[in-house]
Amino acid sequence: MAYIRLDSKAFFHNLTAITNELSKACPTTPNLALVLKDNAYGHGLRQMAHLAKEASIESVFVKNYEEAISIAQLFDTITALYGEIPPNAPSNIWASIPSLQALESCITAHKNAHQTRNIELKIDIGMHRNGIAINELDSALAQLEEAEHIKLAGVFGHNGYGDNDDESFFTSVQAFREITDKVRKWCEARNYPMPRFHSLSTSGALRLGLHNANGNDLGDLVRIGIGAYGYHTSELPLHIALKPIASLYAQKISSLYLKKGDKIGYGGVSVVEQDGVFSTYDVGYGDGLLRVDSRQNLTCASGEKILPVMSMDCFSCQSEREEICVFDDVRAWAKEFGTIPYMILTHLSPALKRVVV
Ligand SMILES: *Cc1c(COP(=O)(O)O)cnc(C)c1O
């Protein structure tokens, strides 16, 4: 059976490389939180959560309550980025609140709760995707003042310009700084415990690290996703060597000796140019790969061309290997399909076995 191999050494290397890079620019060691959403970017939530625990990561971000509850024993803080949290959920599962309406319904749902729910307000700092508008912040804080069983434990933004050489990055940094100041003052005036503040993902953190001569602060933590998995998509040169941690392996289903002119696969798209042995391997687009056709030019990690067209559960190439590494780095796949590594990775089927080495 095909499987995904997860290289734990590469994962620990990435975390250390990111910490070192940020420490260079930042007087205090930044606190890394790991983003484990969408089945840990397709790597396998359970496996990556255990590795994160081994790496002493304390805070993680997941997609929703279902993901959070499945790893609830492992971390002090698990923020579900989307959806609601049932009032009886474990108290280390925090809710992200992206709108005044969501805040209201969270407050209502917890009115008669037996425990306090930690929440993190998500504020729109310029990406205009989701979040409470800056001019709604006062209203959110006013609601919180009255709320029972709800604790403001975090305030965060998402700087959507980390990858781009664009001034908007710094506009968002400034917007978040103003929000931080405002909430700090609000807390101080009421003796309210200070929440944590964070706004940067991989590329934003690395980028602000580069600029830290200006005294920019990274926040109480940075939310590292793609960098931990070994990639970044920054347009700006980043001097950091990250290592992809996932590789996909497939097993041989069968081999055939084919002659020049023979056709392979649906529609006979591939035509044999030279007599030889061709084999079929047990992974295809049904396992979450994008379907390779004659427009792409992709090879396995050991160099064999993946012959168009890929089938649902298998693909062919000229090889006799019993096992083949389909990829150990998805950048070529992203490039050939005009997309980003995130997409290639998150599509990998959760049904594929994950093997941590
Ligand atoms: C996905 C996500 C991240 C991580 O982004 P990367 O580019 O993968 O580091 C951080 N914060 C939020 C809110 C996210 O949704």
UniProtKB/TrEMBL annotation:
SMART domains: Ala_racemase_C (SM01005)
Limits of the Alanine racemase C-terminal domain: 245-357
GO biological process: D-alanine biosynthetic process; peptidoglycan biosynthetic process
Chain residues that bind substrate: 129, 312
Superkingdom of the organism of origin: Bacteria
Molecular-function GO terms, alphabetical: alanine racemase activity; pyridoxal phosphate binding
Cofactor: pyridoxal 5'-phosphate
Sequence positions bearing N6-(pyridoxal phosphate)lysine: 37
GO cellular-component term (any): cytosol
Gene3D superfamilies, alphabetized: Alanine racemase (3.20.20.10), Lyase, Ornithine Decarboxylase, Chain A, domain 1 (2.40.37.10)
Keywords, sorted A to Z: Isomerase, Pyridoxal phosphate
Cited PANTHER family: ALANINE RACEMASE, ALANINE RACEMASE, CATABOLIC-RELATED
Name assigned to this protein: Alanine racemase C-terminal domain-containing protein
